[in-house]
Structures are given as structure tokens and as C-alpha cells.
Design brief:
The chain is built from 18 helices and 9 strands. By secondary structure, the protein is of the alpha+beta class. Among the domains are: about 180 residues, no CATH class; about 70 residues. Helix 8 crosses helix 17.
Length: about 450
């Protein structure tokens, strides 16, 4: 069977897998070599091409491979080196290179979204709304020699991510190899990447005076939850405003900073109808968004959209493989997490192609977990049946051509097949009967009592 006939069969039976491979090949192409050359640091490519290393990590992130050992066995010929050298390559990846992978994927994704006719979400008119949040990587196994005699589990690092609400993609990553370092370490770099017309959403961990002052100096707006440790000077009296979606809203001016660096902000207070999961009944938000650009209630509701980045992090753990406990070296663990963010952006292109050809409501009801499984299952067979050379000859290389190809394959996806499982409301658990300490119950006898 010819490669063209094979591609047609896979497009008919496994369209999601075909779309995923087309997007991944496009983003992991020749341009990735330029990214490596600009950010490689002391690394070189005399033997191992970084594009091959990136493909190995991408397959782990997508879930088609479980770990680096499996990736090495699959790409041994392309790597052309020993397993030890491959491990060393990933363990020495320059952190800046991991960060640039996310930025590069955001640029490529934005171009593809534009060709697919994706309309960015207008969150707040006149502003590019971004969220900032940190994710501490989970503990790893004690494979590092210096960690084997320690009771405490080693932590491989932290990623501070920036999320673009308009396009629903990760567009920046700031990695910290030291897991004990806090998010404020990277705030100078965060500020340098922002400018006029940007609006940053962040939780109370980023409620730091000099950070907000630096943002204001760059004419960048922000909506940040007030941390109780930050003491400012309240001005005037608190004014009652309209209701938001979560409760009654009030506003009052506040001054923060020292004598020569004082800035005046709007302090928005929301008296919640229902307490948060932490038990808070009142929250305070600090912002420098002008009153004429957004009302008090609008900004209170805008802050709620910060959960979009939390949902994105959740998808990294459920639909992708962002962490592997065997990846103990910080640089390797951070590379995999950034590659998972890379895969997340690719996934957003796939969703945009589905939105272009199917009803919006039907696509919104699709399960991201089921989509990821539908991509993982046939991928190995497709990679074997259609090699890279045949694939490149059968699929377009330009973004415009790829967008047309994705839309044509998208028409064959049966979106209802991947709907989320909907369950009824949870029932309160029954009161449990006490029994003697250490006793067991026979399931058979319990069933016989019915």
C-alpha cells in the first residue's frame, strides 16, 4: 500500500492522531535548530541533534513514550550515541533553551491559529490580558547520588508560566533550578517582557511593592490579589459599587510604597456570596486599571479568569506527561515540563481546527483526556507505517497549507465520540458505624444482610 493510501486510511480512522503528528512535525522542524543555536550555551550538536532530543521529550510529554529509556531505544539510530550521553545531554540542557521552546511554540502556534481563522477572545477591550503563576515540580526519586542518604525527597525546580488569555496558550516560561527559590526571583525578567497595553493577572504571591511599581513604570496594568502582609495607606472612605457575579463590590483608593516611590491604586473589595475553598469570605484586589477603562465589578470578574492558567496546569497533568519521577536532574525535569507546555500549545491548534469545522458547543463538550488517548493509541503504528520522508512528501510545510490540511482532516472527526462523561450531583456520604479497632468486614456477609 502506498504512503498516500496509508495516510488516507489513518485520516479516516484516526484523524486526531494525524492532526497531532502534522502539528508536531511542523513545530519541531528546521526552525528548532535556530532556537538551539541562539540559546544552547555550552552545548553543541556534533553528535546529537537537539531536534532529535526535542522529539524524544515531546513523545514523553504527549504520552506515547513513558520515559527517556524508551525514547532512547526508539531513536537510537537518529541519536547515534550511547544512553549515558543521551541522559547527559538532557541533564545539561540550558534553562534558557527550555524557556525559549515555550516562546517559540507560542509564536508558531499564533501563526497557525491565524491561518485557521481563530478569533482571539476579547477579555477586556484595549488590553492584552495575561496571567502569571508558578508551578512547583513534584518530588522525584532519590536517583541522584547525593540524595540517596537523605530522608527528604529532592525537588527538581519551579516553573513560572505566563498564559495568554486571548489565544489560550502559554507564551512565556521562567524556570528556576533551585526549588527553594521563590517566584519573585524572576520578576525583573517578567517586567521586561511586558509593556503598554498589557494587563497582568496574578495571585497574592505576586503582591510585592517593587513589582507593582515596576509594572506601573512600564505603563503595564495589573490586577493582583492583595496580600495581607502588604500594608498601605487607605485614602478616603470605601464606596459601595454594583454587584459582581460573586458578591457585592466596594472600592477605595490606597497608597503603597515609600516616600519617594508612592503609587496610588484602586483597592477593590468583594464580599463573597459563598466562601472560597480556603474559607475566605472577603477578598481584596489591587489594580491600576483606569476607572474609564473598566468598572469595579468588571475587574472583580476579570480576576476570576485567572483560573484559566490553573485549568491549563491541570490539563498538563491529566492530558500530558509534564513530570516523571525518574527525571531527578533539575534541568531535565524543567525541559520536560516546558515540552509539555509546548505540547499544550500544539493541542490548542488542534482544537482550533476542530472549532473551524464543527459546532462550538460540541467541541467544548469534548474531553481533553479522551482526545489525548485517541492521539496516543495509534501513533506508534502510524509512525511505523508512514516514515518521516514519506510524511514530509505527503503533507504541506507552510502554515497556510498546514491549516488547510488540518481543516480537511478535522471534518472526519466524530466529536460526539469524545464527549466528557457527565455525572450527577454528589450525594453526602452516610454516617459510618463504629467497629472495634483493627477489625475487618466480610463483603460477602454485608451483601447477605441486604
Amino acid at each position: 500500500m502506498s504512503g498516500k493510501a496509508m495516510l488516507e486510511r489513518f485520516s479516516q480512522c484516526n484523524p486526531l492522531a494525524v492532526m497531532a503528528r502534522a502539528i508536531a512535525i511542523q513545530l519541531l522542524g528546521e526552525n528548532l535548530k535556530q532556537v538551539f543555536e541562539k540559546n544552547r550555551g555550552r552545548q553543541y550538536t556534533d553528535v546529537i541533534e537537539f531536534s532529535t532530543v526535542a522529539m524524544c521529550m515531546a513523545e514523553i510529554a504527549l504520552g506515547t513514550l513513558e520515559n527517556r529509556n524508551q525514547a532512547y531505544e526508539k531513536y537510537k539510530e537518529e541519536l547515534g550515541t550511547s544512553l549515558v550521553a543521551f541522559y547527559g545531554k538532557t541533564n545539561r540542557t540550558n534553562p534558557r533553551l527550555s524557556e525559549e521552546l515555550v516562546s517559540y511554540s507560542a509564536e508558531q502556534t499564533s501563526s497557525l491559529l491565524e491561518h485557521l481563522g481563530y478569533i482571539p477572545w476579547n477579555v477586556l477591550k484595549g488590553y492584552r490580558v495575561l496571567s502569571l503563576d508558578g508551578n512547583h515540580l513534584q518530588k522525584t526519586e532519590r536517583r541522584l547520588k547525593k540524595a540517596r542518604d537523605q530522608w527528604a525527597a529532592p525537588l527538581p525546580g519551579t516553573v513560572v508560566a505566563r498564559f495568554d488569555h486571548q489565544k489560550q496558550i502559554f507564551d512565556r516560561a521562567y524556570v528556576l533550578e533551585d526549588a527553594h527559590a521563590q517566584e519573585p526571583v524572576v520578576l525583573e525578567r517578567v517586567v521586561s517582557d511586558l509593556g503598554e497595553g498589557d494587563l497582568l493577572l496574578a495571585d497574592r504571591n505576586f503582591c510585592i511593592v517593587h513589582f507593582m511599581q515596576d509594572l506601573a513604570a512600564r505603563k503595564t496594568c495589573f490586577v493582583i490579589r492583595h496580600n495581607g502582609r502588604l500594608k498601605g495607606t487607605l485614602l478616603g472612605t470605601r464606596a459601595k459599587k454594583e454587584r459582581s457575579s460573586t458578591g457585592m463590590v466596594y472600592e477605595q483608593a490606597i497608597e503603597i510604597g515609600q516616600k519617594n516611590d508612592v503609587i496610588t491604586l484602586r483597592r477593590i473589595t468583594v464580599e463573597l456570596d459563598e466562601p472560597t475553598r480556603d474559607g475566605d469570605t472577603v477578598i481584596h484586589i489591587l489594580t491600576n486599571v483606569p476607572c474609564e477603562d473598566a468598572s469595579t465589578a468588571a475587574l472583580a470578574d476579570l480576576y476570576l479568569t485567572r483560573w484559566e492558567i490553573e485549568n491549563a496546569f491541570y490539563r498538563l497533568t491529566t492530558a500530558f506527561t509534564c513530570e516523571v519521577k525518574g527525571n531527578c536532574h533539575p534541568r531535565c525535569a524543567l525541559l520536560l515540563f516546558c515540552m509539555a507546555m509546548f505540547a499544550f500549545n500544539c493541542h490548542q491548534v488542534l482544537l482550533a481546527a476542530l472549532y473551524a469545522e464543527h459546532d462550538d458547543e460540541a467541541v467544548e463538550k469534548m474531553s481533553h483526556f479522551k482526545i489525548s488517548k485517541a492521539i496516543q493509541a495509534p501513533m506508534e503504528g502510524m509512525l511505523t507505517a508512514i516514515n518521516e520522508e514519506e510524511w514530509n512528501s505527503l503533507t504541506p510545510r507552510s502554515h497556510a497549507g498546514l491549516a488547510r490540511f488540518l481543516r480537511s482532516v478535522s471534518k472526519r472527526v466524530k466529536v460526539n465520540k469524545y464527549r466528557k462523561a457527565v455525572r450527577g450531583p454528589k450525594k453526602p456520604p452516610p454516617k459510618r458505624k463504629r467497629c472495634k479497632k483493627g477489625s475487618h468486614l466480610s463483603a460477602f456477609r454485608l451483601l447477605q444482610r441486604c
